[in-house]
Amino acid sequence: MRPEVFADVERKLRRQAHAAGIDHFVVGVAVFRDRKLLVVRRVADDWHGGMYELPGGGVESGESFADCVARELYEETGLRMRRIVEVAGEFDYATRTKARVRKYNFVVEAEPGEVALAPGEHDEFRWIDARSLAGLPMAPDMREAVRALVTATSGRPG
Q1: Per residue, what are the HEC states of 110-152?
Q2: What residues does the Nudix hydrolase domain cover (predicted)?
Q3: Mean pLDDT per 10-residue section of the chain, whose length is 158 residues
Q4: Domains in the chain, ordered, with CATH?
């Protein structure tokens, strides 16, 4: 997606969220290789410890979604983003400190490279397909988002 197109998409997503009373955002980053999706496992002593999820994290004040996607992908996996391919769904949830957060998932094309996890945040990664999803511990909303991604892999990059 061209940056100017994505900027329009982001404005629309933010307007919709604000209309619903949501001002806090998180991004999930979906990277595919050989038709398999990258998921990472949170360290045991963290919030949702031992659970698998998409790499990602909170959008900082003044940060664009695209910048957050690139930053979080690099910080959590050591991979660099080439481009955002598509918005791949959203869901709302509560955290320990925020009543409502909206998480947007983005399918990205990443530069080739090896995954290098952020110490203290994630302790394992896997490349999964629909068959390997069932055995992984995940929060219910994340499981649904990942299931949608891995069952729609045709046409996905990498």
Answers
A1: ECCCCCCCCCCCEEEEEEECHHHHCCCCCCHHHHHHHHHHHCC
A2: 22-150
A3: 92 96 96 96 81 96 97 97 94 86 96 93 95 92 93 60
A4: 3-151 (3.90.79.10)
